[in-house]
Write a structure and sequence with these properties.
Blueprint (H helix, E strand, L loop, with lengths): L3 H18 L3 E7 L2 E3 L4 H9 L5 E2 L4 H10 L3 E5 L45 E2 L6 E4 L8 E4 L6 E2 L5 E9 L7 E7 L2 E2 L3 E2 L2 H8 L5 H8 L1 H4 L12 E5 L2 E12 L11 E7 L2 E6 L2 H8 L5 H9 L6 H4 L13 E5 L6 E5 L11 E2 L2 H8 L6 H18 L2 H10 L1
Parallel strand pairs: 1-4
Antiparallel strand pairs: 1-2, 2-3, 5-9, 6-7, 8-9, 9-10, 10-11, 10-12, 13-14, 14-15, 15-16, 17-18, 18-19
Length: about 400
């Protein structure tokens, strides 16, 4: 049997090889102890995971993987260390021509083919089985089993290779299932699956590419040119072009704030300094570089900058007459509010208060229309009421 010391030496060699290729990644080895860290990654484990040792139990993998990814680390999980034992060929003793004595030659022992030890995991996996081939190596090393590179389950528009896409069951909460995959060998943060998606996946009605579109959409989108994050972006404003002087992401550290611990966008445009809580979709778009700073500023700060392009995204549901939209000052509290006539005897919507920025865009810069303002504030209510049977609406109106 191979010694523990030899195993550690081989894992250390593999760690150094992977670290040279992926210097910024955290490399985890799946061993008998659980998941093990090597080299400088041990200090990262102590700092982020509060580890006292260089390894942790498998049942902690889900939580620790989330903590590492959340801290901005890329993860490589190596569960394919080949553990094998080889025997050296016996050397053939040379014939002595001086004493002319016939020396018996030892029969050369054939090196046995090593058995590949693989760790299997409980998971629903569509990936094709790994193929193995034996190649001739030097006489001192014998024959070693080698693996063919895993065929990608899909290749993104950016040329990234998606592998290891699968669903797995949570060990801490068996009712929960997660989908995850690797892109170019780097582990993605697991995403909790919708129960309907899990059923469809098990029935082979959903494929890995389709699940990637649902749970990692920005990974499949075309990346914007690097120059978009290297030079200042310019947006057309109400009084001329606006230059984005600064744009970044930060985590709120003020414990007194309601958004403490959340990731936020910060933008500086001229003398305006703005921040807002970032949605998961926009955060992914930022980190995956599939949206420019200009697009993210327009999406998150367009109302504060009174951009016409920001309001163009808002459209009323079909069937609403623009003439029935009313923007007026409330006589009781003096605030500007918007409402809409639903038509067909369905009455009007509730009156929603306008923000200062939206009111300024509507009345001052005129970069927003009444229809766009109504769509921004009332679309959800309008859609819900239009979907309800008319008889129920009338009945409710009569009771009032």
């Amino acid at each position: 049997m191979i010694s523990q010391k030899t195993k550690m030496e081989r894992m250390s060699t593999e760690y150094n090889r992977l670290k040279a290729i992926h210097p910024d990644s955290i490399i985890l080895f799946d061993t008998e102890k659980g998941y093990e860290l090597f080299g400088q990654d041990i200090e990262v484990g102590k700092k982020i995971l509060n580890l006292d040792t260089n390894h942790f139990a498998p049942e902690l993998m889900e939580d620790y993987l989330f903590m590492l990814v959340k801290s901005g680390k890329h993860i490589i999980i190596n569960d394919e260390i080949d553990v094998y034992e080889t025997k050296l060929n016996s050397k053939q003793e040379a014939h002595n021509p001086i004493d002319n004595t016939d020396m018996p030659r030892k029969k050369k022992e054939k090196t046995p083919q090593e058995e590949l030890v693989k760790t299997t995991k409980s998971a629903v996996d569509e990936t094709t089985p790994k193929e193995k081939k034996s190649e001739s190596q030097s006489a001192t090393q014998g024959e070693a089993a080698e693996r063919k590179p895993r065929e990608p389950q899909m290749v993104t528009v950016n040329g990234d290779k998606v592998t290891h896409g699968h669903a797995y069951q949570s060990k801490t909460n068996p009712e929960d299932w997660y989908f995850t995959a690797k892109i170019n060998g780097e582990q993605l943060k697991p995403q909790k699956m919708d129960p309907a998606d899990l059923v469809a996946y098990k029935e082979k009605e959903l494929t890995v590419p389709q699940l990637m579109e649902r749970y990692y959409p920005t990974k499949l989108m075309p990346r914007v040119p690097d120059v978009a994050y290297q030079v200042a972006n310019v947006l057309p404003g109400p009084g001329g072009n606006l230059t984005i002087d600064k744009f970044n992401v930060y985590k709120e550290t003020d414990e007194t704030r309601a958004d403490y611990g959340k990731y936020k966008f910060y933008a500086q445009v001229g003398d305006k300094k703005m921040s807002t809580t970032a949605s998961r979709e926009d955060l992914n778009a930022y980190f995956d570089r599939v949206a420019t700073p200009g697009q993210l500023v327009e999406r998150n700060f367009g109302d504060r900058l009174h951009l016409q392009s920001h309001y163009e995204q808002f459209r009323l549901p079909e069937g609403i007459d623009p003439k029935g939209i009313r923007v007026a000052k409330d006589k009781e509290d003096g605030k500007w509010k918007v409402s809409a006539d639903l038509g067909d005897g369905r009455g009007r919507t509730s009156r929603q208060e306008l923000s200062f920025d939206d009111g300024y865009s509507l009345f001052k810069t005129k970069t927003a229309t009444r229809e766009q303002i109504a769509a921004k504030y009332l679309t959800e209510e309008i859609s819900t009421k239009l979907a309800a049977p008319l008889s129920m609406e009338k009945s409710a109106s009569m009771k009032m």
